[in-house]
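Internal tracking record. Fields below are filled automatically when a chain is submitted to the structure queue. Please do not edit lines marked as system-generated. If the sequence contains nonstandard residues, flag them in the REMARKS field before resubmitting.
Queue: standard
Priority: normal
Entity type: single polypeptide chain
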Amino acid sequence: MDKKSKIDYFKYFAKYAPFVVMIVLIAIIAIFINSKSGLKNTEQNQDKQGGKEFLFRKQTECMNICQAIYENHKKLLLTIGTVFSPKYAYNENKNACFYSGGWVDSLLANTKLVINCQTNEEVLTFETDKNGKVIRNCETCAMSAEEYNIRENEFMGSAN
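SYSTEM-GENERATED OUTPUT FOLLOWS
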């Protein structure tokens, strides 16, 4: 290459080099942004998956805790009447486990209740005699079937 060709080559390179550098930088930035976006989406998917796994674990733990309480109630209650099938639920808003159940005694009185399985506390009760008349009035008592169903749903949510 002669001297003039070298000078022309450097002039050409100097003229277009900033554009080449700019294109390379834009490509690097685009790759970086895309990889960050992909990482963010991956983290969001893991959070959603982790939330589902957490909820499943809590529901399973609640079922085990509540089932033990139900089994104890069933042993006691089978001597006086028919026991309802239980429902178990983890209430995410209350961060608590609940079991809903009840029984019909030999006089055909009907008792429904919701129990907080972590405290073994009756949080809702509804009792009627064989004619459907409410027979118990208490702080946790519902005074109608409709009220009981609404309040039970607040504790049990989608388990109902």
